[in-house]
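thought: fold this chain, then report.
action: predict
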Amino acid sequence: MKHAKIFGMLVLLSLIAGIELAAAAESPNDDKPKSAKPVAKTANLTVAVLNFTANDPANPKMGEEIAAALTAMLSGESGVTLVERESIMQTLREHELNLTGLVNDEQAVKVGKLVGAKIMITGRAFRLGKDMFITAKLIGTETSLIEGVMVKDAANADLSAMVVQLSEKLAGKVRQVGPKLIASDDGVDPLPALKKKLADRRKPVVSVIVREQHHAEPRAAVVVAVIDPAVETEIKKVLAECGFTVQDVPQNELTDFASGWTAKNVDSWPRDMAKVDVLIAGEAFSEFATRIGNIVSCSARAEINVVNRKDGKIALADRVTVRAADLSENIAGKKALQSAGRAMAIRLLEHFAETLPEEI
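observation:
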């Protein structure tokens, strides 16, 4: 009864704290100017909270209660998606990992990748002398970077109040450094800077063809739909946003040409590509990775070649592999391909920023 009562208080307080944190995030009295916030902070962050380690004979479920309360509190944060706790527990059971708390950072990163979380939160609660400490770590599953927070009070202090205080610190830390923990350029979207850098360049006319396919889960209960060209669409979208002219060519004609093209037949480009300066051709696929509870994880890989029409040489060859998770395999595969397309588009812009001459 004591544990149930404490946990009930934690959940009630979490709802109140979630409302207060959301109101504080939208408060017009924020001291920081809006222009100082990195662009990537608007991106969604997927967070998973593992059970905390807690050696308290009087409350053996303390670590689980802390994690459950933190999950409830952080679920009210704008731009943060919490992974379902049952999915996390299922992952731990399947991989025979410690159910009472992961103290190994490498294991935390492994679980985070399996459930599609960008940031893992783990920690421990312990008594030291007359004080009670609760520490938490935020671990970037793509970068392995770690940030920490801590709360401290008297050993006989109200645990629920300490957890609320910890959730407030974690929410602030996620907003402050969350984007830096994921695999992006120090948490700042590189697209605006590249767009500005390319603004005064004379840009080539480009055509893009990326053939894609999806490898479904073996023995899938439902038929997985054919995924439309998400990598190609994302590359075209980003290039168009940066002022490039994207020349559409009939899909079959361009596909056949790209598959049989060699450096010696520069003059045999399709008639519809008469004004095209650069061909971006490649292949991509997504595939089922794992299913944890209701969450499906898919991986995607994209490869491209950038060919200059003038000399027929390959100016850039690159590839990228990413992973995404969602409640359906179709959406998870599409999200992974879209992420791969965006990553590839950024690399294309970086290539053009280095090679295109400036206007005189």
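thought: worth noting. The longest strand covers residues 278-292.
final: tokens above.
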